[in-house]
Write a structure and sequence with these properties.
Layout lengths: L2 H58 L21 H4 L23 H4 L13 H15 L2
């Protein structure tokens, strides 16, 4: 038996050992996965059964036909009128939509009033104040 044969034998034994180890791990992982799936399945079934039982209990609580007492605050005797039960409709207070308007060539005094104040009505010497401000501004510019 030569060195090459010995190396081949060692290589084969190592491959066999690795292969067995992989198979063992794969079986172990598959077994754990199966247990987890079974656990989740049982938990899901339990939740569904719990929901069904709670629904049946809730539906059968008042199934005996018990009526509320006549002096109950929640169920007053008599009918409720539509005016008390429903919200009244909104009044039509919006102006109609204007789809087209003839353009004007000039503004009227009423149109310009919110945007214009005549400076002559503010102060008697407004022109002097304006001239001083313009002179000051022009002198400050190099």
């Amino acid at each position: 038996m030569g060195a090459g044969d010995l190396l081949d034998l060692v290589r084969l034994k190592l491959e066999e050992l690795v292969w067995k180890t992989r198979q063992g791990h794969a079986a172990f992982i598959a077994q754990k996965r199966t247990k987890a799936y079974a656990l989740f399945g049982l938990a899901g079934t339990g939740v569904i059964v719990l929901v069904v039982v709670v629904t049946i209990i809730a539906l059968n609580l008042n199934a005996d036909g018990a009526k509320p007492p006549e002096d109950s605050v929640l169920f007053p005797a008599g009918n409720i009128s539509d005016e008390e039960f429903f919200v009244p409709g909104e009044p039509d207070f919006l102006p109609p939509v204007i789809l087209y308007r003839e353009p004007r060539k000039q503004w009227t005094n009423e149109d310009a009033a919110p945007f214009w104040t005549d400076p002559a009505t503010l102060d008697d010497n407004w022109s002097n104040n304006v001239e001083k401000y313009v002179d000051k501004l022009l002198e400050s510019v190099p």
